[in-house]
């Protein structure tokens, strides 16, 4: 599993590659702070995400690991060249976008600290994105800031 998370002390984002079982919590490559103080036993032994190891939030979701910027960039190129290609480029980029979208795997995300969990063998056990939970966490973090 690959985890992309932020250090709570120095705000440094980093990718950590994990292999179960985990004996020690990884530490920040920038300031040395222990990154995850909320690892559950099942996470340490089987990488099972029942809660976020970083912030202890039980709310995680999954979504397609699709690079929106790349998708959008393709459309822009398609539109810009559609005049010379008589619209054919639009068809091509739309198909390319669809193909990319189907090809990508799913990524697990934390509503609270936005940590990203890639190559998670149990990603299917997470729920899809829920706007209500998302808004709840947004209001919580906004009021505490
Ligand atoms: Zn740090
Ligand atoms: Zn979290």
Write structural notes for this entry:
The structure is a single chain. The chain has 145 residues and is of the alpha+beta class. The protein folds into two domains: 97 residues, no CATH class; 39 residues, no CATH class. Helix content is 34%, strand content 17%. It has four helices and six strands. It has a six-stranded mixed β-sheet, with no helix packed on it. Helix 2 runs antiparallel to helix 3. The radius of gyration is 19 Å and the shape is elongated. The protein starts with a strand and ends with a helix. The model has no long low-confidence stretch (mean pLDDT 92). Bound molecules: zinc ion (ZN) (2 copies).
Task: Give a brief rundown of this model.
Helices cover 34% and strands 17% of the residues.
Q: Helix and strand string, N-terminal first?
A: EEHEHHEEEH
Structural class: alpha+beta
How many domains, as an integer? Answer: 2
The overall pLDDT, averaged over residues, is: 92
> What is the beta-strand fraction?
15-25%
Please describe the topology of this protein.
Blueprint: E1 2-6, E2 13-17, H1 41-46, E3 60-64, H2 68-81, H3 88-103, E4 106-110, E5 116-118, E6 127-128, H4 131-144
Parallel strand pairs: 3-6
Antiparallel strand pairs: 1-2, 1-5, 3-4, 4-5
Helix pairs in contact: 2-3
